[in-house]
Structures are given as structure tokens and as C-alpha cells.
Amino acid sequence: MSFFNRAKFLFSTMKKLFKTILNTVPRPLLIKMSYVVKPFLSLALRGKNYTDPIDGKSFSKFLPYGYENQRENVLSPSTLSLERHRLLWLYLKRETDFFTASHKMLHFAPEQAFYKRFRKMKNLDYTTTDLNSPLADVKADICDLPFQNNAFDIIFCNHVLEHIPDDTKAMQELFRILKPGGMAILQIPQDLNRDKTFEDNSITDPKERAKIFGQYDHVRIYGKDYFNKLRNIGFEVEEVDFTAKLSVEEIDKFRLSKGEIIPVCRKK
User: Fold this and answer.
1) Which among 33, 73, 144, 180 would be 20 to 30 A from 56, CA to CA?
2) Whole-angstrom distance, CA of residue 38 vs CA of residue 58
């Protein structure tokens, strides 16, 4: 077997293995396992084609990712960031004072790509929360949070609400604990071709749920009405398409999803 065919076979095997792991291993264990495999992935895929803006490292290729329909070339081997993480990082760097001003911050279900970096930032009074994550400082239910009203300058709650049956109550809690003048980034997986959010609790088969909702443990797929639902809670919502400010070359180099919207929510 030629080197090219061996490499192709190895990559195909890795894709199948990743898909199996994502669909069978509990998320807390996945987080712990990832710390072991990251150095090996970074070494195996070193190159110059694509760059992770979070740590500045470049690779010949990013990894595939997805519970059902895998997306090619999207998972950074070094930070394990996906398109949404890299997009948010660039937005925060270029458009906000997140990295320079003092902020009291609450981070739900902290992503590995961000966790250690945010923890080290001296300008952040940084707290993490989740029911199950081993990275959480405070174990809490997003629908019944143990924080005072108007407690945080910044809240990150990204790719969480699609897991929550009562997302209205969760949004109300997020609004309650955000300070007036504060900013909440509330990213979700979203189908912008849908006008209305779709959910159907009668679909119980995990494989069927993964096929329809994108992941076996998602309870809905959000449409364009997501932004107005946030507005009805009380948030002022800016629908930020930051990729519109980037060149085609940057979108490809950083492996971003063109047209993805960052919901930047504020409280008067």
C-alpha cells in the first residue's frame, strides 16, 4: 500500500472512530480523554494550510466532526475548537474590549478551547457553571440559578439552550443575572432556512434524533425566530454576521462557517 493510500485509510479510520466516540462516550469523560489525545493530533497534522486563531498554530488539515453527518476539516487539532469557537474568538478580539477591560463573567458549560485561556486572564473575574461538566466551578441548573439578580457583566452560554426542555425559563434566568449594560453571547446551532424553531418530543430514537436535530441529545433545532424569542424575554439582540467583515481567504484559513450569526444580547 502506498503512503498516500495508507494516509487515506488512516484518516478514514479516524473519522469512523471519532463518530463512534461522540455517540457513545459521556461528555464529561470525553473532556478528560481529549487532554490525552490533543498532543498526538497536533503532531500528526502539523502543516501550514489552516490556522487556529485561538492559539495561532497551523495544520495541514483540521479534523472532521459531527454526531451524524460529519463536517470535514473543522475540528482544530490543538485547541479542539470548532467553527463557532474560532468565529467568536475573532469577534471578541477585533470588535470588543473582552480581553482588556475588567469584567465579572459567568461561563456555562465551558469549552476547552476557551477555559484555560479565560481562567488565566487577569481582567476577568471568571466563574464557570454546569450540571455535569468537570470544568464547572458551580454545579447548577440553568433554569434555577444560584446567583443574585444583575450579577454578571458578561455571560457566555453557547450551544446549551438546545439541550434544555424549558428554554424560556433558562433565557429568563440568563436575563435576570445579567447586569444592566452587560453582554450575553448565546450561540446555538441554528438553521437559518427555517423561519420557526422545530421540536418534536415524540421522536425518541437517538439515531433519528441525531439525524433530525443534529445531535442525539438536542431537543430542538432553532430557526430565525430564535432572535425574537430572546427579544421577548427582554434582551436587546444584535445579529452579528462577523464573517461579512472577513475575506474569503480568512474564512477558509480559519475554517469558519460563512454567514453564521453570533447572537450578541444586551440588557438595558
Assistant:
1) 33
2) 14
- In the chain, which ranges are E strands? 46-51, 58-59, 63-65, 71-75, 103-108, 124-130, 138-139, 152-156, 178-185, 236-240, 262-266
96 CA to centre of own chain = 19
CA angle, 66 then 69 then 72, to 5°: 65
CATH number, domain containing residue 248: 3.40.50.150
Give residue-wise pLDDT tens across range 230-268.
999 999 999 999 999 999 999 999 999 999 999 999 999
Last residue of a domain, one of 63, 82, 101: 82
What is the domain extent for residue 213?
A: 84-266
Check whether residue 25 and residue 109 sit in a common domain.
no
Co-location of 19 and 105 in the same domain: no
DSSP bridge partners of 264:
185, 238
The CA distance from 89 to 104, in Å, is: 18
Q: How far apart are CA 112 and CA 134, in angstroms?
A: 11
Query: pTM of the prediction?
Result: 0.84
